[in-house]
Amino acid sequence: MHPVQSFVEEFKKFAMRGNVVDLAVGIVIGAAFQKIVTSLVNNIITPLIGSLMGGVDFTGYAITIRDSEIAYGIFIQSIIDFVIVAFAIFVAIKVMNELQKKENQKPEEKKAAEPTEEVKLLREIRDSLQKTNA
């Protein structure tokens, strides 16, 4: 086999492995989720917090040293945005984990509803006793 063909085949196997495909799907979903979280933060949570704090906006805070402007307010606002985004993601993951727990419990409930071998045997004995007494 030609070295280029071998390289292509090896890359194809690598690219189609389950975890690589899962990673690609995760990145795409993460990018879409990031838009949702950013919108939630920028359009809902930040304005609510701003109204509670009296409309405080840190982005305008800066100090000037000679000809350089140090915009520390943007840094503070970025930290606040990060905390809000991290909290929103934490809540979303917590909700998803709870839903997954409930989903995983459903098969166990079905198994619990099915009679055990002992109960099946006792039912057979009861049925055979009823046949002999009838």
Name some characteristics of this structure.
134 residues; 2 domains; flat; 2 strands; mainly alpha
Structure notes:
By secondary structure, the chain is mainly alpha-helical. The chain has 2 domains: 1-53; 57-134. It is 80% helix and 4% strand. It is built from 4 helices and 2 strands, in the order ααββαα. It has helices at 3-15, 18-52, 72-113, 117-133, and strands at 63-65, 68-70. A two-stranded antiparallel sheet has the order 1-2. A hairpin with a 2-residue loop joins strand 1 and strand 2. The longest helix has 42 residues, at 72-113. The radius of gyration is 30 Å and the shape is flat. The mean pLDDT is 82.
Net shape: flat
* Structural Rg: 30 Å
User: Segments where pLDDT lies below 50 for 5+ residues?
Assistant: none
Total E-strand runs: 2
Mean pLDDT metric: 82
Q: Give the CA-CA distance, first to last residue.
A: 79 Å
> What is the chain-wise order of helices and strands?
HHEEHH
Strand count, sense and closure of the main sheet? 2 strands, antiparallel
Strand order of the largest sheet: 1-2
Note the total helix count. 4
Strand proportion: under 5%
Class by alpha and beta content:
mainly alpha
Total of domains: 2
Helix content: over 70%
Task: Walk me through the topology.
Elements: H1 3-15, H2 18-52, E1 63-65, E2 68-70, H3 72-113, H4 117-133
Antiparallel strand pairs: 1-2
Helix pairs in contact: 2-3
Question: What's this model, at a glance?
Answer:
The protein is mostly helical and 134 residues long. Helices cover 80% and strands 4% of the residues. α2 packs across α3.
